[in-house]
Amino acid sequence: MMEYCRKSKIHLLLSVLLTGTLPSAFAQEEEEGARRQGAIEEIIVTARKKEERLLDIPGSVTALTEDRLRDLGIRTVDDVARFTPGFSFSKAFGRSTERPVIRGAANILAGTTPLAESGASYYLNGVYFQGDVQSLDMNLVERVEVLKGPQSSAYGRNAYSGAVNFVLKDLVGGEFEADVNASLGLAGDAGERREVSASARIPVNDNLGFSIGVRQWEYDGEYENRTVDTTIGDEETTSLSLGLQFSAGRHEVRAQFLDSQDADGTRALFLHRSDYNNCFPGYRSNLTKSNFGVNAVRHGTEIPGGRRADNPFQYFCGEVKPQDVVRLNTGNTVDPVPPVGTDPNVHPNAYDSTVAFSGVERDRQIYMLQYAFEGEAVNVNANLAVREEVLTTGSDSDHWDLRWYTSALGATPETPDFPQRSAGFAIAFDDVFEDTSFEVRLTSDQSRAFRWGVGYFRYDWRREANFLDWQYDLNSITATRVVRDDPATTGNLNRACTSAILNDCTSSLTVTSRDVTELGIGRDRNTDSYTIENRAVFGNVELDFGPSTLSFEVREATEIKSLRDEGLTALVTVVDITETPTTAGTAVTTTDGTVEVVTTTGEVYARADQAITVSKDDDEEFGSFTWKLSYSLDLSDNSLFYASLATGNKPGGLNSALAEVNGFPDFDEEESLNYEVGFKGTFAGGSIYMAGSVYYKDIKKFQLTSPYEGAIVSAAVSNQGDAEITGLEYEFRGFFGNYFDVGFSLALTEPEITKGCDIFEYVLTSGGFQFPNFAADGSQNPDPAGALSGATCDISGKQLPLTSEVQWSADLNFNYPLTAGLSLTAGINANFESSKYAQVHNRIETGDALEVGVYVGVYGDQWSLRLTGRNINDEDAPLAVTRWADYGQGSSCAFFAGFLGPAACKSELTGNNGGVTQAVIDAYSLTDEQVAVLNDIGTSNPFVRGLDFGSPRAPFVSLRTGSTWILTFSYNF
Fold this sequence. Notes:
This protein is mostly beta strands.
């Protein structure tokens, strides 16, 4: 706490120095600076849904103009974040499920869990855009505006921490323009990349204009998947844009169509396996399996320092260091498959079609229609936008070269068309999105001292989610062996033993399965659906009095969220039977009705009804009232002091039925109260621009995503507590002489959880035990009764995850005129982001990241040639780290623990007398208190929930693109 106070005082001192001394100091230099040739252009922005000078906005806005986008080589939203103070971007899942973070307000798995949102929103020409924008064609963009702080009252839903607005180029007036661009990645550690684009701006006259643009982008990826001898991380986008702009008198209409197809291969993800775990002993460990079940099976991946089959740790603490070793089951390019042991770099059973889908494919169309009327007393602006998108994502989600054999006993033999093997654990979705937004605004004459505005907003969003899987005959079941393959042995080892159900560990695991009757990939017949309906009214007033301006904004919104959670009933159901079958395949009567069963000697399984079940079909209404009060003072014509007080609101939502069963009910809105003081201005004759601000955010009921027990991989959103964020931001840009300009930005952020309880924090600090009891309302308020000594779920004082405490960027640009209308340009830039924690536990982190870039180019009247180097220092810190599970290792009952609960694993820790074995006590250095809890598992003791017993935790990382050199040629007609 003392350190926090000291840092806060430093922030405040810096803010006072910047806001109190800089304007007067530079005012003395304005007369001398006015004689300089270089000057910063006056930037007109639409950050407040109207055209105004950047210098007149009483808030923190970073505006990247067209020349800045060019000089910094900005091609994606990720690049925008690298040069915007207070904006961090986590590219955790390739070009899908983006998680923009502004001013430290983050959500761990926003976008991956339905109805969980990041709190920062995107806009195209001021129109709300829901989705991913990494593949947006930046050739269409004239300016990027990043608004920091809550924009809920002006921009609406999900602008809780800020907004990013991509402003498209104007189409009317001026002369015909057309250009072609071709880029080629030359060398470096990154894979080859190619980009070809062409666009034309066709102004028919001052009132009518058209545009057309096409783009083809390809990147081959750079990391090798050694299982199948291919690279991963490849990306491809094909896009088309059409625009029309028409004005007649006081009326103006703009129509825009954007079409894009993304076809990305296997995402560049790397599993930092549980062999590296170095902290918190527990039962999600390799030791659990190697000592108390089947020996751990490992093959393929080289791990420096050797393997840790005796590793008792369940977690990793420290910076995750990516290894250039990736082994995924994504299909085979080696033909024929080498015999066992002949090629250590290729898994001997690397078959095609090992996952339903691997990569990201997106087919998206956006239709926009904008209308503006400029009246003598009232102005009208209206926007209508429609998005239609089909998004397919998938991966080998165990991140291993681990195989499941699904060859049914007595079934049709394996064929090349259907190898009857798949990745050990794979996830693939085929989602359909449809959303429509409509907004209308009425505003008064903005040149008057008193100004007002009112408006209405409507937004409708729908997502239908389909799991991609093999197609099966749901009317037939067959006994199936599920085993694992190990090239180091002559036989097969179990993926799991049957002790979880039958107390019998055999050489193979027999479970029930559906017989394969249709070969290939398709959709399961269940479809989950989610909807959002948002309706809002808003207004603002502004009053100038002398050099001061006072403004007030309000928005009242109602949002209805719904979900329909469908699913097939469990494939394996253990039930009591009223008779003992003697023949395999006998139909028997169970206590809950007549059910077909398949039996083998000593084993009985019952199949439940395979019909679709709707486990939850619900909706919930959320209401919000947000406001913002701002004061600004013109210190001069070109400098401004401002202060604001604002509320923010992130919508609440619904969790699935399974999440509710596991203590995660529907979640409430996250709310914040925000204070900000800042300044901005141009000085020294317009050759220097500076802006600085200090802010404080008080957050209540902050939303975080958490995994829950009862399924292999599931997460839910909960209101885990309160938090506060204190920060400082600073921007500088200056021209020096005729040829040089310099840019610099800095952001210092202190995001601290002030109150909160996390389930897994207790698991870590207790040595692997689940928390004994929570409040009946599922709010995760702990009941300390039954808690182990020294164990806690308290996360207060922790840093919010996915946030950096320090960000800075710097760039130096040189522009020198040559002869014959040519000019020489060159520059160097760097950006830094301090380490980000993956979770609220503040143990796994990315490490600091520094990227350096350079460029040199020659520009003529109609053509240019430029060489750009990106990340030339080859920084390899992960872009993001996500806590996962190492499904290839862990307890031998890990597979069944998700279905039957952790008590099913107790037999692995107890001897014949039913008590905890001495081997377990010695391995984990158990206290008498912990032994007593273990012995109570499965009893009626209300304070014993059991063990956190399954596959160990092992983070996966999103790999960073290495050093890249790109040669770009452009020609303008």
